[in-house]
Structures are given as structure tokens and as C-alpha cells.
Amino acid sequence: MERQDVLTEIADAHALLDATSAAHLAYTGRNGTPRVVPVGYFWTGTEFVVSTADTAPKVAALLARPEVALAVDGGGTPQSAQSLSIRGHADIRIVDGLVPEYVAAARKSMGAEAAAEFERNCRAMYERMARIAIVPEWARFHDFGAGRMPGFLRDLAERAAT
């Protein structure tokens, strides 16, 4: 997928990305089996940043096999359902203290006082963190209520309507 097409898909999902900092990260575990785990993320405008403890099992797995998928979902009804799917490679860097984007992601869903307490607690808990950066190589945004859905579903809906 061309880089501009990837960025257009992500730009079209701006309301979804602004509304949540929760996603699901898919990767291959150290034993070769698939994993999907809930994660927090922060979109910087060029990469999705996921953070975790430097000792988390996914860090070793991603160092061995960096291919990942990330899914961001929203909407509580079929008419409001939206989904952004990303594919790319994880670039991992171990940082001292907190990953800045980790705190920024938390601030999206917390008031100032709660975010300050969250940051204090995290600084006490994490000596180091893994910063997992995913530069999207492929992206697809679906907005089901607006009719922006996978082609096979659109074809089925059109056939059913005739």
C-alpha cells in the first residue's frame, strides 16, 4: 500500500483515534503461536506508540518477530461501529522511566487530577519501559454506519437489497 493511501485511511479515522486510546495488538509469540492483547496507544501523526514494562513477554516476542497488526474499534451499535486496522513492524526501544506517549495516551481519557495521580503511580512502578513504535505500512478504516465497509460485505448487502 502506498504511504499516502495509508495516511489517508488514518486521517479518515481521526474521530475514532481522538475518542479512544485503547486498541488490540496482534503479534506472534515466542513459541510461534498468535497473540492478541489489549493495549493503550498514542498516535503521534507518524507512528502508533504502545508502551509496556521492559520485562513483558511481548517485548522479547516482538524483538524476534516484529510483524504486528493493531486494531482500534469504536461505536456501541451497528450504525456507529468504526474500525481502523493497521499492519506494520514494531520498533522497540527501552527507555529509562516512563515513555512520554504512555502518559499522553492516559491523559486522553482522564481528568488532570487523575492523570497526575496515574503518572505518579507509574513513575513509582516503572524503572524502565519498552517503547513500541509501529509505523503503519497498511491501513484500512471502516465506518459501517456511513456505508464504508469491506467490499465483500458491501457486495452481500447490495445483493440482498435487490
Estimated radius of gyration: 17 Å
Largest sheet: 7 strands, antiparallel
Order of helices and strands: HHEEEEHEEHHEH
Question: pLDDT under 50 segments (min length 5)?
Answer: none
> Total number of β-strand segments?
7
Domain Pyridoxamine 5'-phosphate oxidase N-terminal: 15-121
InterPro entries: F420H2_bilvrd_red/Heme_oxyg, Pyridox_Oxase_N, Split_barrel_FMN-bd
Protein name: Pyridoxamine 5'-phosphate oxidase N-terminal domain-containing protein
Pfam family, one: PNPOx_N
Overview of this protein structure:
The chain has 162 residues and is α+β, with helices and mostly antiparallel strands. Helix content is 35%, strand content 38%. Strands 2-1-5-6-7-4-3 form a seven-stranded antiparallel sheet. A hairpin with a 7-residue loop joins strand 5 (67-74) and strand 6. It starts with a helix and ends with a helix. The mean pLDDT is 95.
List the helices and strands and how they pair.
Layout: H1 3-12, H2 14-19, E1 22-28, E2 34-40, E3 42-43, E4 48-53, H3 57-64, E5 67-74, E6 82-96, H4 100-107, H5 112-125, E7 128-143, H6 151-161
Antiparallel strand pairs: 1-2, 1-5, 3-4, 4-7, 5-6, 6-7
Keywords: Oxidoreductase
Pfam family, one: PNPOx_N
Organism: Pseudonocardia ailaonensis
